[in-house]
Each structure stands twice: as structure tokens, then as C-alpha cells.
Amino acid sequence: MKTAVLTGIREIEIIEVPEPPAPAPSEVLLKVEMVGVCGSDVHYYAEGRIGTQHVTYPYRIGHEFSGTVLETGTDVDNLRPGDRVAVDPAVACGKCDQCRAGRENTCRNMRFLGCPGELNGCLTEKIVMPAGCCFPIPENLSLAEGALVEPLSVGLYAVNHLSGIKPGLNSAVLGCGPIGLSTLLALEAVPERGSIYATDLVDERIQAALEHGAAWGGNPEKVDIEASLLQREPDGLDLVFDCCGKQEALDQAVEVLKPGGKLVIIGIPEVPRISFAMDRIRKKELCIQNVRRQNGYVQPAIDFIAGGREAGFMVTHTFSLEESSQAFDLVYGYRDGVIKAMIRV
């Protein structure tokens, strides 16, 4: 079967590999349908690493995907061949202290699709996954929306579980790629929430944010973000969601948050260390909350879209498996107004 693999920095090749084995009793064999190109995938593509995780070539990446069930293991009774599914790419052990405490997203033995040293990614024609990672999607969801469930689940988890969002609180999303826009959609759905502000370096992403709930959007290369936000909210913001992992955005967040505000870090920095102006954080008594993927929000993300919340607008480009290099180059270069590039396998 055909598989796309990294063979070097910014190099992808299509190779033939053996078919996957038959699924174990608690597993399913999936036909991979749509794969979303994520920013973390692009780090591996462009730099060969994220932090201490280094790629050993050749390597198969990709973790956001939808699929169709081809075969089920003998113990699987909630899925059948032909079912279309969204897939949670995180495989937790279910046994460690974190899993027992209901924190499967910080499982000490986590295996994640497309992470070096863990599991091969989903940029391939077929893949075997635990049945517990596969969630049927209703007929009114497209396969592309099924692949969007993964980033949307992160945004919903960050907003509804970790942020402490309440009616009346204002917020900003710094970085409006797919994770940022997923966060914005989750914020927009909060009843009686305050104003939402958005920033990004790509004007088309700012426009998308404005069309889906943001009261204002700005490009840091064209406007002074701190001054613009504080002009609109002189007392500062209650919540800031960093969805780009850039030092400049983190610095902006500290300056625009009000005393007692909260910074929620979702973006993955390209560098191993970031810094904060500790005098500003201390004087404002700011809370900093990191986000580790999602925990229990895959089904809510499916229900969110199935219930009528629009998410498909994020898919701006679609490529074939053979065009994987073009897809990754497009996202790496932030070209052509890209928000989410999908690869149709």
C-alpha cells in the first residue's frame, strides 16, 4: 500500500509498504480517508524535531484523520465495517496513575500517532487503531469535518475545561490557524460571553475569525496589538489563548491581561525554552495554564459540528496523497491564505 514518509528536512516520498496486520481483538482496521496537516506535523517536516523529539528517517507523520472501518477485532461490538469514524490519535495505557485519575491526556505511557518513538502516523492508505480511539460520525458530517474533530476537540477542551470561562469574560485568541479558530468557535458558543479578539499574521485567517465570532482582528505586522486591544478593553482582558507558540505572542498576552487574568497556552513553541517578564506576571498575579491535547472532548467535538456549528470553512486546500509535499510546503510557508490543508488519501 502507498505511504507518505519523511526522508529528510522538507522532503517527503511516496513509498510502498506491506499491508497492516489483521486487527487484534480490541482493534479495527481503517481505510484512511482525509488527513489534516497540523502545525506540529510541519515542525517535524521543516525542522525534524519538536523539543526533544527527533525524527529518524524515513518516518511517517500525521495524526488528524478520518477513516472508514474495513475490519473489526473479535471483541469490538460498537463498530462495523463501513462505519465512518473520527479518530483520537492518542493511545493511553489506561493503567498508570494519570489514567486512573482521569487524565489520559497526560498518560505516562502515551503513544501518539506521528510522534517519533511512539506510533507511526496516518499518512498511509490503511492503519490499525484501538477501537476505543474510533468515534462514529453521523451522516451530516463530511470526512473532512471528521478529520477536523481532532483540532476542534483541543479547542473545546481548552475553553470548556481549563480556561474558567464565565459569562461576561472577554478574551483574545493569538494565532488563528486551525487550533486558534477551533478555540474561537468554542468561545463563541459560550452563553453570554464577553467580546472575543483575534490576531494572526495571515489576513485571510483574521477575516475567518471576524466571520465566526471575533469582535476585532489584527495582524501584528500591521498594527500594534497591545495598544489596539487595550484601547478596546482599557482594564485588560480576562483570558488570552496563545495558539501560535511564539514568544512575541506570549509577551503580548502578559501585557494585555488584566490583574488576575489567565493565559492559556495551546500553541507548541518551536524552541525548547520560552521566557516571561516575571515582574509583570507577579504584579498582575497572572495564572498560566498549559494545554496537553484534549481529554474526553472527541465526542463533544463531533456533537458540536453535528449540531450545526460550522467548522468546514477551515478547510481551504485539498491535496492527494501524491501531493503531500505540496500540502506541507503550503502550510509551512503560510501561502495562499491557507487555514487547513487536507490530504485525501
What's the structural blueprint in terms of helices and strands?
Layout: E1 2-8, E2 11-16, E3 27-36, H1 39-47, E4 49-50, E5 53-54, E6 64-72, E7 84-87, E8 90-91, H2 97-100, E9 111-112, E10 126-130, E11 134-136, H3 143-162, E12 171-174, H4 178-188, E13 196-199, H5 203-211, E14 216-218, H6 225-232, E15 237-242, H7 247-256, E16 257-265, H8 278-284, E17 287-290, H9 298-306, E18 315-320, H10 324-332, E19 340-344
Parallel strand pairs: 12-13, 12-15, 13-14, 15-16, 16-17, 18-19
Antiparallel strand pairs: 1-2, 3-6, 3-10, 3-19, 4-5, 6-7, 7-11, 8-9
Helix pairs in contact: 3-4, 3-9, 6-7
Give a short overview.
This protein is an alpha/beta fold and 345 residues long.
Descriptive terms for the model:
Rossmann fold; 28% helix; six-stranded parallel sheet; 345 residues; seven-stranded mixed sheet; 10 helices; Quinone Oxidoreductase, Chain A, domain 1; 2 domains
CATH superfamily of the largest domain: Medium-chain alcohol dehydrogenases, catalytic domain
User: How many DSSP E strands?
Assistant: 19
Q: What sort of overall outline do the alpha carbons produce when their principal axes are compared?
A: globular
Strand content is: 25-35%
Can you give a write-up of this model?
With 345 residues, the protein is an alpha/beta fold. It has two domains: 2-136 and 311-344, Quinone Oxidoreductase, Chain A, domain 1 (Alpha-Beta Complex); 153-290, 3-Layer(aba) Sandwich (Rossmann fold). It contains ten helices and 19 strands. The strands form five sheets. Strands 3, 6, 7, 10, 11, 18 and 19 form a seven-stranded mixed sheet that branches. Helix 8 (278-284) links the parallel strand 16 and strand 17. Helix 3 (143-162) crosses helix 9 and helix 6 packs parallel to helix 7 (247-256). The radius of gyration is 20 Å and the shape is globular.
